[in-house]
Design brief:
Length: 480
């Protein structure tokens, strides 16, 4: 497959034409400028083309500028399938179902927090369990488990972890309907039982940040101002979601044979959307998505409590409220315009964030005029961004944009590169206090292991599929 067949459409997009690979039903689109094009992996390009061969795919197989090779689908991938002719594939969602980002604002300013940042990070690290196999403070009985899977963040709010305002500012209200706890394996229940309210490992984190730059006056509508302290939480469905994906990949591998689906890569295992196998996966995936929304809700509650304790401040004075919570590993049934025709589609977003335009009925009333907040975390040493969804995203990408910086080094390569270095000290020299469950995590997650988030965000901003509103800089990080 010749890379010279790729065609640059404009400064932000490359096209993979239909003749790039036999069997492609639609073209491929890679959102990437000339800077990030140099970091494109051949395997990622092949994965975009492979997805374009799947039954019922509409418009294009797309990836965002944070693209890197994943399981079946590239990470950064967006693909939508017709409900009648199309399929659903666990590889298009990923193992960490509803990995996502939650952002909180506060009334605190950077100058108030920096003198206490070491204490604050220490208490946050003690209050919020993190790391591989970490166990939370919540112990779930069988009935509570089922309620949580059906209600998501609402379950957490009912237990006293937050309130109705939090739910209003969460994608899907923090609960996606159609979950079925009876379709979850015993092993998934066992893995999820003790992990509710935990951060997990790898690239998951809680960051104390401050508003470093404001690009758009609409930042005021989000309650943002310069030098303001914000808190970003990045985690998902933990071992529970991982097991749901593992279980249903086996189901889908059998379904491929049953329905005689020809695949260029067995990792694209899938089933026709209307089949029992696909519907079971969808109901199980929704349960895992609800688990993740409850998880972020609980972590947010403990973060608020920690700030009140460390700063001896009342909830009203602290003013720590939700800006938004958005998923970036999920498949959802949505309505979109395709060639002038309104269609119901199953939209897979794997390492891609929803970016709905102003006026969309799914947006909370408070954001209906400005568009959906888009939360893009960077690596722990540089920056994160807040953007807003646009009409261009609705037209081009099924209302989707990037989800983060995107790795350019494997975890093994990063550990090798970090040998002999004290990453925590390098971070402290930059004014960032870090606590982690292990040194290995800091090596794996160092800034050099990632693309520069500013380049990634510039691509989606210049392409018009989301618009920059503010940049956030970290001053305190806890990682698994």
């Amino acid at each position: 497959m010749a890379l010279e067949k790729l065609k640059r459409i404009d400064t932000t997009k490359i096209e993979i034409p239909l003749d790039y690979k036999p069997g492609m039903r639609v073209k491929g689109i890679i959102y990437v400028d000339e800077i990030l094009e140099k970091e494109l992996e051949a395997q990622s390009i092949a994965q975009v083309a492979n997805v374009a061969t799947l039954p019922g795919i509409v418009k294009a197989s797309m990836v965002m500028p944070d693209v890197h090779t994943g399981y079946g689908f590239a990470i950064g991938g967006v693909a939508a399938f017709d409900l009648k002719e199309g399929i659903i594939s666990p590889g298009g969602v990923g193992y960490d179902i509803n990995c996502g980002v939650r952002l909180l604002r506060s009334n605190l300013q950077k100058e108030e927090v920096v003198p206490k940042i070491k204490d604050l990070v220490g208490v946050l690290y003690n209050e919020i369990p993190s790391g591989v196999g970490s166990k939370g403070k919540i112990r779930l009985g069988p009935e509570d488990e089922k309620k949580l899977l059906l209600k998501g963040a609402l379950w957490a709010a009912e237990q006293g972890f937050g309130d109705a305002e939090d739910l209003e500012k969460t994608e899907s209200g923090g609960c996606i309907e159609g979950a079925d706890p009876s379709l979850i394996s015993k092993k998934a229940y066992e893995r999820g039982r003790a992990q509710q309210g935990t951060l997990g490992s790898g690239n998951h984190f809680l960051e104390v940040q401050y508003v470093d730059e404001i690009y758009d006056e609409r930042a005021a509508s989000l309650g943002l101002f310069k030098e303001q302290i914000t808190i970003m939480i990045h985690t998902g469905s933990r071992g529970f979601g991982h097991q749901v994906c593992t279980d249903y990949l086996e189901v889908m591998e059998r379904a491929v044979l049953k329905y005689k689906i020809e695949l260029p890569d067995k990792e694209l295992a899938c089933a026709p959307f209307e089949s029992p196998e696909a519907q079971d996966y969808l109901a199980a995936m929704r349960a895992a998505a609800n688990y993740a929304w409850a998880n972020r809700q609980c972590i947010m509650h403990w973060a608020r409590e920690t700030f009140m304790k460390v700063f001896d401040i009342s909830p009203r004075k602290l003013g720590m409220t939700m800006i938004y919570d958005v998923a970036h590993n999920i498949a959802k049934v949505e309505e979109h315009d395709v060639n002038g025709k309104n269609m119901k589609l199953i939209v897979h977003r794997k390492g891609a964030t929803r970016a709905f335009a102003p006026g969309h009925p799914e947006l909370p009333e408070v954001y209906r005029d400005i568009g959906q907040p888009v939360l893009i975390p960077g690596d722990m040493g540089r920056a994160s961004f807040i953007l807003l969804g646009t009409e261009r995203a609705m037209e081009e990408t099924f209302g989707s944009t990037c989800h983060g910086a995107g790795r350019i080094m494997s975890r093994h390569q990063a550990i090798k590169r970090a040998k002999g270095r004290a990453i925590w000290r390098e971070m402290e020299d930059k004014g960032i206090i870090v606590r982690s469950a292990g040194r290995g995590t800091l090596a794996e997650e160092m800034s050099e292991a990632y693309k520069d988030i500013s380049n990634v965000v510039d691509v989606v901003h210049n392409a018009g599929i989301s618009k920059k509103v503010a940049r956030l800089r970290p001053i305190g990080v806890i990682k698994g």
